[in-house]
Structure prediction request, 183 residues.
Amino acid sequence: MKMSKLVPWNWFKREDEGRAMPVHVRGYGDESMPPVERIRREVDRIFDDFFRAVGGSPSGSWTSFPTWSEDGWLKPSVDIASTDKEYTISVELPGVDEKDVQVEVTGDTLRIRGEKRQEKEQSGRNYYAVERSYGSFRRALCLPEDADAEGLSATLKHGVLTVTVPRKESARTSAKRIEIKPA
Prediction:
């Protein structure tokens, strides 16, 4: 049985295109890592490989915490819901301003990317401290055939980016009752 048939639509198939798949190589630095951390990383890698193979989203879709991809990009969590009229894509982006987020559609691919910068400054009688952190993120989602990319809209509120993609009217099918005739 082909596992990809269990996935109704592979929204995440564009995320790994054009990137070489990582190969786990045990290096000399691994010995200094605590054994529990080595085991955790290996288990994470096994699950990521499995979900990538069946067309799911590695790491980001089944945890509430953002994860780092192999190429150093932050992968915020994504939730996708659908109704008969639209798809709703929610992306967790706490602390990110809307001016630092880009949402664009190219063909059937929805790309969400941005950057988070934070600077914290403290000073006291005998000290002065500045902490800076920053990181970039990106997600690439493959839109289904019935998605209307022209009517796409996005809002960012309370750290959650909500992208609404209407469904095309022609793609919606209604059930047609077939009369059964006696033989």
Q: What stands out?
A: The first strand starts at residue 67 and ends at 68. Residues 20-29, 57-65 have pLDDT under 50 and may be disordered. The radius of gyration is 22 Å.
